[in-house]
Amino acid sequence: MDRIELIKQRLAPINDMIPTNLPLAKGRAMAALDALGVSRNEYKGHYAENFLAALRQLLLEDPVDDWKVSGASNCLHLMDPETHMKLRFIKEFAFGGLPPAGKNLRRTQAWCQEPLSLFDRWDSNSRYPLDGTEIVVLCSRGL
Predict the structure, then answer these.
(1) Which domain holds residue 19?
(2) What is the pLDDT of residue 120?
(3) CA–CA dist 74, 72 (Å, integer)
(4) For residues 46-55, average pLDDT
């Protein structure tokens, strides 16, 4: 199996989870802001943090196959133990698009990795064939 097909195969259960869990996470984030009496539009950063926390909690409560949720509670990163591929969920920047990597080294590495089609470390015989592959999942502002 080629690298792109393996990625598609390993992401299939994540794709199946998204239509259910993203709206649930949005509802939980909105409820949290409502409980505080603050506007989602005025407190965009708080909404994004609550959204990712709610989505993280949903995945901890009902894991997707064997994907592992990172230990850090201030972000949502998943790792596929079979291939070592990582997913990084982030909310779209307030005025659209991918937020800048900033000074965070791991985020900079994820933003600057080679395109999947050019990734030269692909070794289909490796124990962890997608080790070093990090997919950034951008959750749109509409959520």
Answers:
(1) 3-139
(2) 52
(3) 6
(4) 89
